[in-house]
Hints:
Structural class: alpha/beta
Radius of gyration: 19 Å
Bound molecules: 1,4-dihydronicotinamide adenine dinucleotide
Number of strands: 14
Low-confidence stretches: none
Largest sheet: 6 strands, parallel
Amino acid sequence: ARIVVVGAGRVGMITAMRLAETDLVNEIVLVDVAGGLAAGIALDISHSAGLLGFSTRLRGEQTVAAAGTAAFTVVTAGQARRPGMSRGDLAGTNATIVGALAQQIAATSPDGVILVVTNPLDEMTAHAWRQSGLPSGRVIGMAGVLDTARFASLLSLTGIADASEIRGLALGSHGDEMVIPRSLVSVNGSSIDGRIDEAVLDGVVSRTRNSGAEVVGLLGHGSAFITPGLCAAQMVTAMIREDDRVVAATVRPNGQYGVDGTYVGLPVRLGRHGLASIVELDLTPGERRAIVSAASRISDRVRSLAG
Ligand code: NAI
C-alpha cells in the first residue's frame, strides 16, 4: 500500500518519518509545492533505512497526481500559526489550499482515506470532505489524539501517575470548545473521583486547551510539529492495523451524541476505510451539552467559510 503525505513541512516530515520507521507500507510519498523540499525530505528520511532497518521506500513529488493512488493521504499543507495568531486566522488561506487538494486527492485516490491535519482543524476537515465528494467516513481529522496526549502528559506532571497510566479523551473542537469529559478520565483503570482536586484538574484542562499557543509562543516561529506528526502517523497506523482502541477523531456523526451533519471531535474506532464506528460512551448531561455546543460553533464557522 501507499501513503501520501501532502505538505513536507514540519508536521509532514515527522509524520512521514514515523510512518517509515513503523514499516507498515511499501511506499510513502511526500508532496509539496516548494521546489525540491518533498524530494529532499524523502531522500533524507530514506537514508535512515540503513540505520533503522525499515523497508518502506520514500519519494518526493510536487503534485498529488504525480504521487499516485494512495490508500491514505495525510493533509498537512498550508500555513501554520505565528505568535499572536489564532487557528481561525488561518482559515481563509488554508481553505483555498485544502479545498483544491481535496479535489485532487479524490480524483487520484477515489477509494482512499483523507486524514486532515491542517488548521483550523475542524473547519478544514469539513471543507475537505465537501470539496472531495467522498463519503464522510473517509474524510476525518486529527486533533483529539493530540489533545488527549497533551492532557495525559500535563496531568502526569501533577504527580498523579505516569502519562501512560492516564486515560481520557479530548472531544469537541480543536480549540476553545475542546471538551475533556471528567467522567472519562481514569488512572490505572480507576476513576479519578476524590483523587484530584477539581481546581487542579480544571487547570490541566485549560493548559491543554492552550498548549498549541504555548508552544507557538516559545518557538517564536511556526507551531508544534513533533507530537502532532506522531499523532497523525499513529492514526494512520491504527487504520491500517484496524486495532480496537477507542480514540478521539474529528468526524461527521448522524445523530450520535445529539449531533447531526457537522464535523466534531468524538470517540471512534478506526479502520481501513477511515471511520469504522462512532463509539457512544456514557457522558453526563453537561458533557453532552458541551459537545453539542462545540458542534454548533464549528458548524457556524464552516458556514462562514463557505459564504
Ligand atoms: P509548515 O509551514 O512547516 O509546512 C506546511 C507545508 O505546506 C509547506 O512546506 C508548504 O510549502 C506546503 N504547502 C502549501 N501549500 C501547498 C499545496 N497546495 N500543496 C502541497 N504543499 C503545500 O507547517 P507545519 O508546521 O507543518 O503545519 C502544517 C499545518 O498543520 C498547519 O496548518 C498547522 O496549523 C497544522 N497543525 C495542525 C495540528 C492539529 O492538531 N491538527 C497540530 C499542528 C499543526
